[in-house]
């Protein structure tokens, strides 16, 4: 495909216009002010539009689309025990498959090209990922409240199966991460086993960290350490790790995360909605931590609108710390693109540059909310809407365009979701 006469946001987030961008295979092959001599196939008229990197959702539980709006205005503990856990207990593979497809469709609509996921029924999730053409770092959250050897845990058995079956499938689109659910849902032996497995196999780690004050204080009572200190001592951070939330960090935690090269996936909307707090992103950035953005689940967000998430990411600390200079629009946009790609171990994407993977989106600049444009990055972070996205491309393949999902049968997906919810609610009664 050849994008012509289009504004672009280059790898340094500079806006250039008018430009030509040629896509060959799964990569960006040409960027220039003149029309290329090579034939790139279909020409895309870019007048009034912006081409830029797609977004990377660095922490999600995508199949939980099935629980959107199911539990609201509740404390976290009541939300989990009275609504979410009973609903999840009724899930099966078919429900997760259709919930995953629904979440992928929503992600594509909002320009998300790749997601770091943690859930279960991994075979069905992998099937939806590979069929739809998106990228995903898939993890099966491992928990252990028993004395059972870690290698015999159902979650660990599924993790090994997923890694051996699907890691780097789809031309590398699907990566399998090793996912310890969290300190408070496991024991030291389990954490150490997963850390060792990740190191031995060169896999990424994905773990919930210090999401709530209660979690952090209880960890200190159990182990005499914060969750960050505990997980570091167990070897979790010796692999490339995404640490989700990181709201209740203490002084030494910031240095540990920086020294270990951990990516923090900040989830501002979910954290605010569940009254968990606000991640201290400015201090993380000051310490040199790679900070990315996650939506968390649709059950606690309640959407996958990552442009909305960027705006909350940019403004939450301004309000909390009474400083309007904290977190620039460029830092917020980097968190949703290049930083997210880096955290997933995808060093060949997250930027619009020659040789990078063509994981790209097109935004409509002719909507009232996008006019005028004094600064493109400012507009994207503070003024844009997820509905402004016209096209989402992954590995050079257009997956969403002008309201049409080119790899997902939406009628079948919506029917599958409807039947799954009908069954589950019937069983819960």
TrEMBL record:
CDD domains: ATZ_TRZ_like. Residues 51-398 form the Amidohydrolase-related domain. InterPro entries: Amidohydro-rel (IPR006680), Metal-dep_hydrolase_composite (IPR011059), Metal_Hydrolase (IPR032466), MTA/SAH_deaminase (IPR050287). Keywords: Hydrolase. It holds the Pfam family Amidohydro_1. The keyword Lipid biosynthesis does not apply. One of its GO terms (molecular function) is hydrolase activity, acting on carbon-nitrogen (but not peptide) bonds. This is Amidohydrolase. It comes from Sinanaerobacter chloroacetimidivorans.
